[in-house]
Amino acid sequence: MNNQLTIAIPKGRILTESIELFAKIGIHLESMLEDSRKLIFEYPEQNLRALIVRATDVPTYVEYGCADLGIVGKDTLLEQDKDLYEPLDLKFGYCRMMVAEPVNLAKSDDPGRWSHIRVATKYPHVAEKYFASKGVQAEIIKLYGSIELGPLVGLSERIVDLVSTGETLRQNGLVEVETIAEITTRLVVNRASLKTKHQRIRGIIDGLEKIIS
């Protein structure tokens, strides 16, 4: 039986921190940090290969078994709701998914009295579920970037977006109103791989758990 593992990791800060974490349990993927256009990295001596993919694509590669394991933000998992095993919070990449609105609106606004609102976001699925759970009718406008611009040009009254320090909101005259979820980076596993390569995957999960606990 082929016991080779494939790991999908997005580029950027998650890649760097993931490689540092894996190194602590003896999995060395440092060559992924080299300035390269490569998307597949082979590590035959570790019986391993790694893929660099877009963060939003990690759950898809793992769900379909093209990768056995993946590293991805909880925001992506909440939005896509894929059928994956999510054994570990890796406890880095912390931020908050927030509802935010212009400062002037917030001065007299009461979220408890919202009935119909218009919201711009990269996370339409999460936003729709959240407002529905509060009994609020929300018109969701999907954007792919610069979400803060929505209220500034009258596209929406409010936004749902990730907030780390809050500096971008402040610079654009917006304030946080409600927290939808706290977001960190997660390890996800293909459900079939967990059965067919159980011992090896379990060893990785247990090793990482000891490091981050």
From TrEMBL:
One of its GO terms (molecular function) is ATP binding. GO terms for biological process: L-histidine biosynthetic process. InterPro entries: ATP_PRibTrfase_cat, ATP_PRibTrfase_CS, ATP_PRibTrfase_HisG, ATP_PRibTrfase_HisG_short. It holds the Pfam family HisG. Belongs to the ATP phosphoribosyltransferase family. Short subfamily. GO terms for cellular component: cytoplasm. Residues 54-209 form the ATP phosphoribosyltransferase catalytic domain. The keyword Metal-binding does not apply. Its main location: cytoplasm. Catalyzes the condensation of ATP and 5-phosphoribose 1-diphosphate to form N'-(5'-phosphoribosyl)-ATP (PR-ATP). Has a crucial role in the pathway because the rate of histidine biosynthesis seems to be controlled primarily by regulation of HisG enzymatic activity. The keyword Nucleotide-binding applies. Keywords: Amino-acid biosynthesis, ATP-binding, Cytoplasm, Glycosyltransferase, Histidine biosynthesis, Nucleotide-binding, Transferase. It is an enzyme of class 2 (transferase). This is ATP phosphoribosyltransferase. Lacks the C-terminal regulatory region which is replaced by HisZ. It catalyses: 1-(5-phospho-beta-D-ribosyl)-ATP + diphosphate = 5-phospho-alpha-D-ribose 1-diphosphate + ATP. Signal peptide: none annotated. Heteromultimer composed of HisG and HisZ subunits. The lineage of its organism: Bacteria, Pseudomonadati, Thermodesulfobacteriota, Desulfuromonadia, Geobacterales. It is found in: Cytoplasm. It comes from Trichlorobacter lovleyi (strain ATCC BAA-1151 / DSM 17278 / SZ). Its EC number is 2.4.2.17. Pathway: Amino-acid biosynthesis; L-histidine biosynthesis; L-histidine from 5-phospho-alpha-D-ribose 1-diphosphate: step 1/9. It comes from the Bacteria.
